[in-house]
Amino acid sequence: TAEQIGAVQAKVDRRSDSFNHLQAVSEAIPALGWVMVEKTPAPHVNEMWQCGAYNQTKILQQFKGKDETQVEYAKAMKQIFVALEAFVKEHHRTGLEWNPKGVAFTDFGASGTTLVPPPPAPPAAPPPPPPPPAIAAA
Questions:
Q1: Average pLDDT in the 19-37 region?
Q2: pLDDT tens digit string along 58-93?
């Protein structure tokens, strides 16, 4: 997880016209590391978002009334991290938990276990048409 987060953060270029966009993502992206936080990961998500919020606010100020696409981007970024925090609070309040009765990762799939249920069976074929009526011999 840390390597991928670091790769995202390495993409920030101060000379870029999109510096605030890149910096906002770079500052907030460590929120995805919540999976490694024990006990209370939701505050970690919030703290990381607050780091990115500074540059997100700059985007809002820079593009308000000029480019609504950029404004929507900044608003969507906030919604993502706020929703992530709410998800973590609701489903993983005390950290990520694994099913102790689950199968080992190496056995997953080998035993026929899958995350996706099989597709439904195709509908049965319709019955064949009846035979044509008999023609009387003349």
A1: 89
A2: 999 999 999 999 999 999 999 999 999 999 999 888
* Gap between the Cα atoms of 82 and 14, Å rounded: 26
Quickly list H helices, the chain: 2-9, 19-28, 42-63, 68-91
- Contact assessment for residue 48 and residue 27, using Cβ atoms and an 8 Å cutoff: yes
Rounded Cα gap, residues 58 and 21, in angstroms: 9
pLDDT at 60: 94
DSSP 8-class letter at 103: -
| Cβ pair 36, 4 in contact under 8 A | no
**Cα–Cα distance, 82 to 34 (Å, whole number):** 13
